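re: ur msg from earlier - yeah i can do the pyridoxal-5'-phosphate complex, just paste it... oh wait u already did. ok heres what im feeding in:
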Amino acid sequence: MGIQEQLRKLPSVDRLLQDETVAELAAQWGHELTVSAARETLDVTRQAIRDGAACPPVEVLAREVDERLAARLRPTLRPAINATGVIVHTNLGRAPLSAEARSAMDAVALGYSNLEYDLDAGKRGSRYIHAEEILCQLTGAEAALVVNNNAAAVLLILMCFARGREVIISRGQLVEIGGGFRIPDVMRQSGAVLVEVGTTNRTYTRDYEAAIREDTVALMRVHRSNFLLMGFTHEPTLAEMVDLATARNLLLFDDLGSGTLLNTEPYGLAHEPTIQESVAAGASLVSCSGDKLLGGPQAGIILGRADLIARLKKFPLTRALRVDKTTLAGLQATLRHYLLGEAAEKVPVWRMISLDEQALRKRARAWVRKLNEQGVNAQIVAGRSTVGGGSLPTATLPTHLVALVTGSPDTAAARLRTGEPPVITRIEDDQLVLDPRTVLPEQEGTLLQVVAEAVRD
Ligand SMILES: *Cc1c(COP(=O)(O)O)cnc(C)c1O
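and the outut:
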């Protein structure tokens, strides 16, 4: 049969809309969306026929209309299962939130709140009071301010206090965090004049001292976040930098990156500088993220001297970087876990960090058993999870991985990634592996089901 004949068999939009399945779709999703999906289907099919394909039966066209509608209505931002073993995974949305944080966010999202309303006085209040008291209580800081994220916090601090002035930083701390966020670029963007001192591996207090001039306003320390400096290295302690800054009447900004309120050492990790340590050492302003090791929603936390925080609150750019009510609610609920001494059990990031090998082995065994029952060949292999999120760059935690024995690990990984829900895995030694550490217990059933389906055939 010729192309023209095949084209003639292709139904019109109206005819396609009369098909039972398509008519049901129109009733469910509305006429306009369905017509547009039907048009697209017919356009694509017409082209395929011109390229030599046969005209498919109406049922096939109807199914395609259905698929196109589903694809169009599916949100682009969807929950995924993180089986990579990277706990604070920036690409996968960083910190999962505790039940209490989620319900606090839901409660303020549902209706109105006293976000900027002083209930005692019955008049306008400030949104910035909401997390401030608990942050000060936890860290010993005089005052605190929460903004959109830590990048915003760093930019804000530099713009407010250092525009047109000099800020001294070690060459060993000129970091690129990821996603193109480079400390030297942010400093320049803020209008601050960046003065680099020391060498990549060694910077001394006297290097900072020699660079101080009339225009100098601050010394800055930046957490290296994603790389380690090892071997023949030196840098002053924060206390030494504070001493110098104080003696010369300068400010000291400390960008902690992740920021942690809990000591990492008891978990078998290297020491990650804590927020409390920076505050106690006397940094003028300390900044960190809300959604890295802190385990809360995306936010930038600024802590420090009351007079400086007061100036930041009044600085016009602060309004542009302000944080919304759901974030404040989620952050406050997350911080309450620390206040109550229950962070290791309640904050998901810390719950994952604290999972011991025995618990992980038990979960991995249960997964293997269930997968085997479904005809999937899987086995346990020893491996390492990582903390991620710009903290403890080389730190790993021992884990028990579930390795799937499958023909092509790449194909299986792609199938899992594009499934519903998407499952993000890791390929190690040519094997597709799943790390139980980062899979939330409530996701286990779904995970095993989609893995079995993706790997079996
Ligand atoms: C992650 C990080 C930032 C950026 O923080 P966001 O909350 O992602 O904006 C800034 N500085 C350092 C040192 C970091 O590690």
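cool cool. The chain has three domains: 3-73, 81-89+350-455, 97-346. ping me if u need the other ligands too
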